[in-house]
Amino acid sequence: NAFTGEFPISVTRLARLTRLDLSSNKFAGPIPFAVNNMSHLTGLFLQNNKFSGSLPSINADGLDEFNVSNNSLNGSIPGSLSKFPKSSFAGNPALCGGPLRPCNPFFPSPEPSPIPPETPSEKSKNLSVGAIIGIAVGSTIIALLLLLFLILCLFKRRSQQPKPVTAPTGSVPPAEAGTSGGTTERERNKLVFFEGGVYSFDLEDLLRASAEVLGKGTVGTSYKAVLEEGTMVVVKRLKDVAANERVFEVHMETLGKMKHENLVPLRAFYYSDDEKLLVLDFMEEGSLSALLHGSGVSGRTPPNWDSRRKIALTAARGLAHLHVAGKVVHGNIKSSNILLRPDHEACMSDFGLNPIFSNTASSSRFSGYRAPEVVETRNVTFKSDVYSFGVVLLELLTGKSPNQTSMGEEGIDLPRWVQSVVREEWTAEVFDVELMRYHNIEEEMVQLLQIAMACVSIVPDQRPIMQDVVHRIEDVYRGETDDGLRQSSDDPSKGSDGYTPPIELRTPARSVTP
User: Could you tell me which residue ranges the Protein kinase domain spans (predicted)?
Assistant: First the structure.
């Protein structure tokens, strides 16, 4: 046969199926975890296809025949499948573990404690009586010297008692720190998890996990780590960290307390001289940047207007929560740091990391999204966050990436390009051509454009605060019946009703002031 497409998910509903043979076709995409629904499988044959991604952990007790050879799979072989021979996995160069070659960890494993050399027993038998007496006397003298040294140290320590000393290890109570052990655990090469976490693995589990590079961003490299039991997390390997261990720990505790449905939660962190790691949830839908611009994915359908409105509102709510409840500046807002759930609700990621980096490292961190004042001062603020969010709104409306090398002949940035088009009263030319197929949305698009233009004002004090941005985007939904987006709450990060739209949002559809 020559069947194409992804793994036929409907097959997994056949719970009593005992043998599934999809071999020698042209199926592509991942092998879904849902194959575990077929708990009576004794044989699974997927060889000679184009399946990609990592192997799920398959726990069918009766599975005694298995073959995924000659595909494009990567990552580690789950423990539940390691009983099968090499031939079952041949032709997948990126697979590792189990019967194949060991997997290479994506960061160096902690060095083992040095093992003291064994004392040769042979030589002790040949020692003379004089040598034994000499050793005994020498040992006694050394012991006395050590005892004297300890007494002197204790005396000196007591004499210095009134002087300030460094806080002892683990002095932060777990309830306040939100971690499971503080400095002591990191000294033992342990991940520090936050309270209420959903994961139960340690550093050694991560070292054994297969890793796939998701992207190299401005703060470091992100990996998708697939643990042996099939759990997927994102491990962010930070670079150019200037903060010392204590400052890093305290700052991570602050970020770990940021809980909101439109923020990607920080689950754990790790600090050593060589590595600084963050562990976060894996979001299968990817980023807004990939959704809008493809990111090399063929066949991706551009988002419709409803999806773009929803992304704009939910991302604004997440950012407003950071500003209002957490008093935290995001500092790195861009479409690749806005991750999506399957229902296209947005979650802000990589927030609040600027304080742990040096100023020199942050100078190139916001290409295309940074506010004009950040270029000069290199200091991010709530107002510079609003500017960057305004650029994201323009990206949603125009479909253009702010990181494009040129826009028109002059090579100007996205906000200036939009302003120039609007100034010539060609407002309709601003919008993404993919949106032109939808009817009766022009007024809403113009309203959102007005909000974006207010956010990217050159003068910081003329930009709205994020609470107002949330209210204004909600106003775009006036007359809509989407109760899921129109929540009633006093917290602007959760939505609000009864808000009177500003005068500038009641202008005619084509009247936009840059």
Answer: 208-477
Write the CATH number of the domain with boundaries 288-506: 1.10.510.10
Fold held by 4-96: 3.80.10
Helices (H), 408-487: 414-423, 442-455, 466-475
The predicted pLDDT at position 359 comes to 64
Q: In whole angstroms, how far apart are CA 461 and each of 107, 198, 388, 449?
A: 44, 41, 15, 19
Other beta carbons less than 10 A from residue 137's beta carbon: 10
Give the residues across from 339 on adjacent strands. Answer: 287, 347
- What is the DSSP pairing of strand 232-238 with strand 94-96? unpaired
| pLDDT for residue 148 is more than 80 | no
The structure's pTM equals 0.61
Q: Which of 35, 56, 52 is nearest to 44 (CA)?
A: 35
Three-state SS at 79: helix
Alpha carbon 504 to chain centroid, angstroms? 37
270-307 in b/e form (b: 16+ CB < 10 A) is: bbeeeebbbbbbbbeebbbbbbbbeeeeeeeebbebeb
| Angstrom distances, CA of residue 402 to CA of 370, 391, 492 | 10, 7, 27
Which CATH code of 2.60.40.3090, 3.40.449.10, 3.30.200.20, 3.40.50.2300 fits the domain covering 176-281?
3.30.200.20
The pLDDT tens digits for 194-216 are 876 667 777 777 777 777 888 88
